[in-house]
Amino acid sequence: MGNDFKQLRAGVQSGDPTARESMAQLVLADLRTFVIGQMGREVRRRAEPEDVVQESLLTFFQRLATFPPDLDLDGARGYLFQIAKWRVSDVLRARKLEVGESAAPPMDPERPEPSVGPVTREDERQHLHRAISRMRETYSSVLRCCVIEGRGIADAAVTLGLTEETVRKRLSRAREELRRILGEQ
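Request: output the structure for the sequence above.
Response:
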């Protein structure tokens, strides 16, 4: 199975949809079981297990090239389950959104001023993502990994295929660049 998995991985990385579907089928049943086991009642109120499964698979496929080259199926499952844990944690961290500008009542024609509610966490998150998207990929990937996904330096180094020292330096520089970009806006 080791060689088969390496061939399948190569197919996925080259963009072969059949290989991607085959790899998904290899892990899908275990991933669903894992996600359902991780999700408590509070998480199920906020997200469907299948949504978490699909988001986890998507992230896994996006990061597949960054995983160690000698990765086998069991190792891939380990990475996938860790990604799924982060997705479940993201759902738990997401508080009930306050009413923001997009959910405010429509403007009253008698009162020309716009109705604006408080800024929500989602508004802030979108602002941050827009700023990060303007950064160089070497910095934005480290920020996404360490700050947005909450990974440690060691885990980020493995995921990104870098040394821990490189991750520390890039994270410091990325924060400086992010401050500069946010200051321009």
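The two ends are 52 Å apart (CA to CA).
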